Amino acid sequence: MLSFIARRLGLAALVALTVSALSFGLLFLSGDPASAIAGEGANDADIAAIRSFYGFDRPVIVQYGDWLWSALHGDFGQSYYFQLPVSSLIADRLSVTMTLGVCGIVFALAVAIPLGVAAAVRPNSIVDRLALFLSVVGQAMPSFWFGLLLIVLFAVKLGWLPPSGTQSWTNFVMPTVVLGYYAMPAIMRLTRAGMLEVLGADYIRTARAKGAGEWRVLFKHALRNAVIPVVSLAAVQMGFMLGGSIVVESVFALHGAGFLAWESIGRNDLPTVQALILIFSMFYIVFTFLADILNAWLDPRMRTG
Amino acid sequence: MKSVLTSSAALLALVLTTPLAYADKANDTLDVAFTKELENVDSYFNSSREGVVLQRAVWDGLIYRDPKTGDYVGNLATEWKWIDDKTLELKLRKGVKFHNGADFTADDVVATVNFVSDIKNGVKTQRNVDWMKGAEKVDDYTVRIMLKAPFPAAIEYLAGPVSIYPKEYYEKVGPSGMGLKPVGTGPYKVESVDPGKHFVLVKNEDYFDGPKGKAKIGKIDIRTIPDVNTQLADLFSGTLDFLWQVPADQAEQMAQMGQFTVANESTMRIGYLTLDSAGRTKSPLTDLKVRQAIAYAIDRKAIVDTLLKGKSKVLHSTCFPSQFGCTEDVPQYSYDPEKAKELLKEAGYPDGFSIEFTGYRDRLYAEAIASYLQAVGIDAKLNMLQYSALREANMKGEEPFTFQTWGSYSISDASASVSQFFKFGSLDDNRDEKVRDWLDIADTSIDPEKRKEYYKKALTRIAEQVYWVPLFTYNTNYVFTKDVAYEPTPDEVLRFVDMSWK
């Protein structure tokens, strides 16, 4: 087990390194960072001053080495755009994204799993059709549009919730629903499919035969097995959500990490982009890792693997 | 179970009854939206419009230009005179205090000027400060600013981007500290800064009796909301009071509803086409007749009337009309597609030609231009790029034909527009020695009449040779609640100090 973890971690570090080197190179290919930082209407002198100020006149490989060396020492440098330490900037933005991501995945699981189970218990019933309808709509509706619909209804018409910002917890209600609803259909469909398969298995018939109650059969015996692929999927979804939803964060003016990443790319704010990419790839790695452990706990067969 | 139910009900009741933080006339707070994340509140280290807006509220310049009359009056300085054509002596206002209680004296002016004019300190827009060599103190309330070369627009810059910072504080905290906790002398103090997201200003009760006047609204709460639709929703729900830069379509709808005040005012931004007449890219644009054909082919009035709307106007000269030295009295090209076709035939392109056409914003306008050109046989292949990418290709001389815009940083002097592009810089696609020499005279002469004369000569030659096709001036829409009284100015600078409750 220990060597398994060590191997996984080594691989993870390699992935993170490759991603960061690639993104560094790509950012330089996308345009001269000095003229992007100089902004609109800068003249030659402005750009030349910035180029030497930030050391863009050095070879890209040297600049990357510099960045990597500092990053390994925990120093992500200063944002070119905000002229603030990247670490404090990201910590601030990430707290919003974390809150939203956790709320979103909890909402998605809380709605999708019971709905998936209900749909599987009575296939082709009205409940199943309703669940299918909900998931098709969730998959098809662009989240910026759904977000605006909610804003128009709950903020403008009813006045119950604030349209945008992060001042209080009420600001997070609509974004949670939008983000969660986007992640819900896949989880719901996977739960339904898994449950359908498991419910036809022999051991379920055995459980019923020995007189176990229906709830016990469904949730203790069936769901525990059906949910294993759902855990992996939810982990990936969670990684995706912590990477931030650019659209949701932009519509509700939440200023999270995803929006920061998107804007920073446009501004050629290299230190910020690099640090975010590293953190986002770490999220994926950590969550898939946790999902493996959780699955091993749910399914003893995997523990010996 | 019962307790769960009651607590849920209580929670629900709380949600339904908690009044949202409506900021309005009743609690003397004006809620304003920014669309773009402002980089650094320190005005020397940002280059955005939002930055200019905060700069005018938080800091003061030595001189002030009345936005209505265009006259220069004293602000932190009370009087000034040219000692020679490179030395300006200013007498400073006494009794002014910075927001942190420090007294304003000549030391602050000297420290600020010497800091910002030193290229090593990396001020973002070098043009705003690089004309100054430095400053020296004569006595506590008299300073001299030394110029590198004669620069008659100096007064305009001292009334615009050059603000005075408190010496001791700025030396201690530097630009990033200043951005997080700004300290100035202006009519508003900064209460809090949440970088890029949220800025709160409060009225400076001790503001001196200056030309800006005292603030009337107690608190200005600015949030950055990137999506215009969300901004409008906030306005409707009462969580915002003031929007600006609202797109023409939305502003029109809002005006029809009659629920809010919709004001339109022109900005100093101009739109234009650049044509590579110097042949840096080997295109047909080296031929004057081809360039004239392009100027005749585009119905600029129709574009202004149907797309830009508001106070936008067709532009004939390569500068903003209200800038000092700018004149529209130059050769003009009206919409005449037949003449355009004729000129193309004379130039040896009876069937037209195809050319790369690059833009970076307002795709709609660029597409309209391309379709007018199509109508006379010119196949302009539109390609939209990021600004920095276009700029880079442009500087390398790889862009034959572009649609660009320029805002002159709200500097009301032709040296901030035409002179930026026709003096053999890397963006100069025309390289006309006559134009360059005339602009040099106009930029550095102290005599205003001589300056006007030479700007006119240069602008006339640019128009005759169709080095650029000037298109139109931009406008912006302000939408605000009926409680707010404000008259926008044509320089797109929001002046909170001029806003009041009705």
Characteristic terms for this protein:
heterodimer, A: 305 residues, mainly alpha, MetI-like fold, 15 helices, flat, B: 502 residues, alpha+beta, 6-stranded mixed β-sheet, disordered N terminus
The unreliable regions of chain B are: 1-21
The percentage of residues in β strands of chain A lies in under 5%
- Looking at the chains present, what oligomeric state does this protein adopt? heterodimer
**Order of neighbouring strands in the sheet with most strands of chain B:** 11-16-12-15-13-14
Ends distance of chain A: 9 Å
CATH topology-level fold name of chain A: MetI-like fold
* Number of beta-strand segments of chain A: 0
Under CATH, the homologous superfamily of chain A reads MetI-like
Number of domains of chain A: 1
End-to-end separation of chain B in angstroms reads 53 Å
| Helix content estimate of chain A | over 70%
Segments of chain A where pLDDT lies below 50 for 5+ residues?
A: none
- Secondary-structure-based class of chain B equals alpha+beta
Mean pLDDT of chain B, to the nearest integer, reads 91
- Rg of chain B, please? 25 Å
The greatest interface between two protein chains, and residues involved on each side, is: A-B, 50 and 53 residues
Q: So how many helices of chain A?
A: 15
The coarse silhouette of chain B is globular
What's the architecture of chain A in CATH terms?
Orthogonal Bundle
Transmembrane segments (chain A): 94-118, 130-156, 168-187, 226-255, 275-298
Keywords (chain A): Cell membrane, Membrane, Transmembrane, Transmembrane helix, Transport
Subcellular location (chain A): Cell membrane
Family (chain A): Belongs to the binding-protein-dependent transport system permease family.
